[in-house]
Write a structure and sequence with these properties.
heterodimer, A: 181 residues, mainly alpha, Arc Repressor Mutant, subunit A, 2 domains, 0% strand, globular, B: 263 residues, alpha+beta, Immunoglobulin-like, 3 domains, four-stranded antiparallel β-sheet
Chain lengths: 181, 263
């Protein structure tokens, strides 16, 4: 890990500003800090290391080309990159054409993954909450998020009514929120 | 119309891009456009979804992935990124956009007041012009009637004078100094030899030399009606006088004054 890497939101803003100026070392810092979660999410969705590497390339290259897509005032870079990676991977999984530009997603979570200890705690907490959920409810979340299935597909596969699928997915997400507030 | 709380479950699916009913999506998007509470909830749900991503943490990309990225970046043309403004549903809008409806409303009201005032002003102007036009039409009709009667030689004409006095030659002038137009009306003028004409002279207020103001000859009854425009346009006149000049007129009086202002 680079000694120049920083954990504060203020320094994250400065990193993005350097990337805007074309500073390659700033991009290297961002990669070193966040490539782990980006790769892990892509691998979880695609189940293929080569394809996951392609997603990593795609996500970071797009950040290099369009750093202003990330709004540091609205949240942290790590969760934002993780969701971008998930969306890219789902596009690949479903053979949907990728958008040329990374989307601006307002993700305001303040969870800090740059500090390794804090990241371990956060990951452990998320896994703990998911473990507490009934297995079938956890499965619904996984199908929606990691497999990119729509609620109609999920209802068809599980045999659960559409309304139930909706409600259980929402309550699962709210359980995660509660653990971090 | 659904209450926004009824969209809560759909919002969670929307945040995960898992809501595949196009009608529901369209309805939700429309609702999000007008419901700040639901937009905030959508943002919160997206953050919850991001937490879900953390559960995948663990595997690390191979070192070659970093090298590949840095090579790709180095190959990209260097450019300074310009900040561009994009608006995304659920995102805080710029301040100016939030106050825009109020500003637009105020501007529209100001424009409406200005239009009403302009409308009233135009109506007043229209009424005044219509009144002036009516007056001018009336005056024009009178002037037209006067001119027709004076120009028609078939109409009986009489000049009434004292019963004890023989008819006297008489010339009347009306002068419009703003336009330099002079109207001459004469009665009982003696006939002149063929090589002679009467010539009217304008005596300028400035004391300058008399200026020719038209030549004329009386008809068989000794009457004249002449409208003459001064060559130099508007000239202030002190008086008018008439001389007898050679046919064709003169540039300056060559003969004694035959007619001068009374008194």
């Amino acid at each position: 890990m680079s000694g120049t890497q920083v954990s504060s939101q203020k320094d994250e803003v400065a990193l993005i500003a350097r990337i805007r100026e074309g500073d390659e070392s700033a991009m290297a810092d961002v990669y070193d800090r966040h490539s782990g979660i980006v790769y892990a999410v892509a691998l979880r969705v695609l189940g293929n290391t080569s394809a996951a590497e392609d997603v990593v390339q795609e996500v970071f290259l797009q950040l290099w080309r369009n750093p202003q897509a990330f709004n540091a005032d609205r949240g942290r870079l790590a969760p934002w990159l993780a969701v971008i990676a998930r969306n890219r991977a789902i596009d690949l999984l479903r053979k949907r054409p990728m958008e040329e530009d990374i989307a601006e997603l307002p993700i305001s979570t303040g969870v800090n993954l740059e500090d390794q200890a804090a990241a371990r705690i956060a990951v452990s907490k998320v896994r703990g909450v998911l473990a507490q959920l009934p297995q079938d409810q956890r499965r619904l979340l996984e199908m929606a998020f990691f497999e990119g299935m729509t609620h109609t597909e999920i209802a068809g596969k599980t045999g659960e009514p559409l309304g139930t699928v909706k409600t259980r997915i929402r309550s699962g997400l709210l359980a995660l929120r509660k653990a971090f507030t | 119309m659904k209450d926004h709380t009824e969209y809560a479950d759909s919002l969670a699916l929307y945040a995960m891009d898992a809501l595949d009913n196009e009608r529901e999506r369209a309805e939700l998007r429309q609702h999000l456009g007008s419901c700040g509470e639901c937009r905030r909830e959508l943002e919160a749900l997206r953050s919850d979804v991001a937490l879900l991503a953390l559960s995948a943490a663990g595997p690390q990309p191979p070192q070659r992935s970093r090298e590949r990225l840095m090579q790709a970046i180095a190959a990209e043309p260097h450019h300074v990124h310009k900040v561009k403004t994009r608006f995304v549903l659920g995102r805080l809008q710029p301040h100016w956009l939030r106050v825009a409806p109020t500003v637009v409303t105020v501007l529209v009201l100001i424009a409406c007041v200005a239009l009403v005032r302009e409308n009233l002003r135009l109506r007043t102007t229209r009424d005044r012009l219509a009144h002036e036009l009516m007056q001018q039409n009336s005056e024009f009709a009178l002037a037209h009637e006067v001119m027709q009667m004076m120009q028609d030689p078939s109409l009986p004409r009489m000049t009434l004078v004292s019963a004890k006095t023989a008819p006297q030659p008489q010339i009347k002038t009306i002068y419009q100094p703003r336009k330099g137009h002079v109207l001459l009306m004469a009665n009982n003028l003696p006939q002149l030899p063929d090589d002679k004409v009467y010539e009217l002279w304008l005596m300028p207020s400035s004391g300058a030399a008399p200026m020719p103001a038209g030549t004329f000859s009386p008809d068989q009854k000794g009457s004249v009606l002449m409208l003459h425009a001064m060559e130099d346009g508007a000239v202030e006149a002190k008086a008018f006088a008439v001389t007898i000049e050679p046919r064709g007129g003169s540039r300056a009086p060559t003969m004694p004054i035959q007619f001068a202002p009374a008194g």
